[in-house]
UniProtKB/TrEMBL annotation:
It holds the Pfam family ABC_tran. Gene3D superfamilies: P-loop containing nucleotide triphosphate hydrolases. InterPro entries: AAA+_ATPase (IPR003593), ABC_AA/LPS_Transport (IPR051120), ABC_transporter-like_ATP-bd (IPR003439), BCA_ABC_TP_C (IPR032823), P-loop_NTPase (IPR027417). PROSITE patterns: ABC_TRANSPORTER_2. This is ABC-type branched-chain amino acid transport system, ATPase component protein. CDD domains: ABC_Mj1267_LivG_branched. GO terms for molecular function: ATP binding; ATP hydrolysis activity. SUPFAM superfamilies: P-loop containing nucleoside triphosphate hydrolases (SSF52540). The keyword Electron transport does not apply. The lineage of its organism: Bacteria, Pseudomonadati, Pseudomonadota, Alphaproteobacteria, Rhodospirillales.
Amino acid sequence: MSVSDTPVLEVRDVSLAFGGVRALTEVSFQVNKGELFSIIGPNGAGKTSMLNCVSGRYKPTAGRVYMDGRDVTGLSPNVRATLGLGRTFQNLALFGHMSVLDNIMVGRHHLLSNNAVSGALYWGTGARKEELAHRRKVEDIIDFLEIAHIRKAVAGTLPYGLRKRVELARAMAVEPKVILLDEPMAGMNLEEKEDMARYIVDLNEEWGMTVIMIEHDMGVVMDISHRVMVLEFGRKIAEGLPDEIMSNERVKVAYLGVDDDEPAQTGEQVA
């Protein structure tokens, strides 16, 4: 998917405080349609807090969030989902007692017909057609993520790597314009990371989703991102192309933990 100059998401001077603790301080950035945009920084830098402000879980103390030019700062996560925002979480948020298929179908909930007229007809032919249409969409996602063999499995019984894939499937089921991925490769082995990186790139290029990703694996971030933003103690310290970020002296010292005259190691895992 080509990257346009049209911002699909814009964050303006967002600050967030919990009592006397400032999680974010006047952070601004925009993500253009078709981008794969990564947010990096040390633990406690405010990365997940920023995604929570974008998704609507947190309301900023100050500043605004815009989607396609519309101010969504005061809108709930559910309303933002209807506007085209999907989300995965750092800590898995699956329904552990439900099947993989049912977990993914939950992501379709806001797309179901629920007005008075359709509700009256829901149990007729229209309902069956709608159900089939949603099932086809879900099956496309299942095939894409190569999880057909576990579609009937109880989500809570699956290995961690597969559960991460199921959560991505549920976020895809929202049919988002923008998908927020919070550490999608955390806790995975090398093979699982390579698979997930491939899915994310295909999600962006083939499925046409703009991706905003938090990830600690610098090798992955620098390989697949179009642009990268760096946070430190809730403030933005850098933003640019991957090569620019890797050569930024402040980023090397603050995040990668190297001296000015030491080369950054793109393959290292940063905790």
